Amino acid sequence: MFHTIMFSGGANYAAAFVGCIRYLEHIGLRHAARRLVGSSAGALIALLTALGLSSDEMRAWSMELAEVHLMNKISLDSALDLYEMCGIDTGEHLLNAVKATLAKYGFADERDPTFKDLAQKTGNDLFVCVLNLSSQQFEYLSVDTTPHMSVALAVRMSMSLPVMFTPVHYNGNVYVDPVLGRNFPYDFPGRTPQTDSGVLGLYVSGTRTNTLKNPHCAFQGFILALMAVVVDQSNNHADKHAFRMVNVEIADCAAKFDVATMAFTWTPEIISHLAKSGYAEAKRVLQDYANPASH
């Protein structure tokens, strides 16, 4: 039985995790994990999991999010923002979308729920991985380390892809997406060789295939292509095989569809394709857990 689930980053492709969650529901392990750990877009999926959303609810949420423009179109003004604020987009739409999600799924009465609020209401511990540029250290935000911090702000920090989004300034420090070294949050607090048997890692790979083919814009495609190489190299150093690992290969989706990755725009067909890929890979890796005697 898994007590911890880790979610890698992957921008839109993190929708594949909806299929993974669906398979966990199928084998009766959906609510076994009480610790949810995420980096970048994976932090958002980890939050949905912590809130208790079913795979069907996650799918519906994905479709709702597809109608929201989380990132402004790149223009001359955004180029000036890059120079003045170190990012093309302020991330305001993204932050508001996360707050709206919290309000819809259990926190309508709380103005800006904290990690402590989330833990007390759900019984789940959310760990959000971020990169503190000021200290040049990767950090995990949680009820243990930052109990009074806004959950929405933490997720916004973790999704602050350098250049694309402005960094977040918090308590005198500057925070960005941990994509450059912890796109997969494998070194979360409390993880030991003795506990790895209860850890499940969900990861998407193959994201670099389509970054320069029909990109949302030439500049965005260029940045994403560079990031993809860095992410692949950094993940090679992660000890991902000491625990159970579901590695969803999404290169076929990247090749088949023109996914506007950083604009967070996709279609029902794309979401369905990604979810099916996630379900199939989770079933392949976790089929032994389908036998009640194994868990």
**For this structure, what is the CATH class?**
Alpha Beta
The end-to-end distance, rounded to whole angstroms, is: 5 Å
> In the CATH classification, which architecture applies?
3-Layer(aba) Sandwich
Question: Structural class, from helix and strand content?
Answer: alpha/beta
Order of helices and strands: EHEHHHEHHEEHEEEHEHEHH
Give me the CATH fold name.
Cytosolic phospholipase A2 catalytic domain
Radius of gyration: 18 Å
General shape: globular
Taken together, the total number of domains comes to 1
GO molecular function: hydrolase activity
Transmembrane segments: 6-24, 36-53
Enzyme class: hydrolase
Protein name: Patatin
Q: Secondary structure elements and their pairing?
A:
Elements lengths: L3 E4 L8 H11 L8 E5 L1 H10 L4 H12 L9 H10 L1 E3 L2 H13 L10 H8 L2 E8 L4 E5 L9 H8 L4 E3 L2 E3 L2 E4 L2 H4 L16 E7 L12 H18 L8 E6 L1 H6 L11 H19 L9
Task: Give a structural overview.
The chain is an alpha/beta fold and 295 residues long. It has one domain: Cytosolic phospholipase A2 catalytic domain (3-Layer(aba) Sandwich), CATH 3.40.1090.10. The chain is built from eleven helices and ten strands. It has helices at 16-26, 41-50, 55-66, 76-85, 92-104, 115-122, 151-158, 179-182, 218-235, 251-256, 268-286; strands spanning 4-7, 35-39, 87-89, 125-132, 137-141, 163-165, 168-170, 173-176, 199-205, 244-249. Strands 1, 2, 4, 5, 7, 8, 9 and 10 form an eight-stranded mixed β-sheet that branches. The chain has a two-stranded parallel ribbon with strand order 3-6. α9 links the parallel β9 and β10 (244-249). α1 crosses α11 (268-286) and α5 (92-104) crosses α7 (151-158). The model has no long low-confidence stretch (mean pLDDT 84).
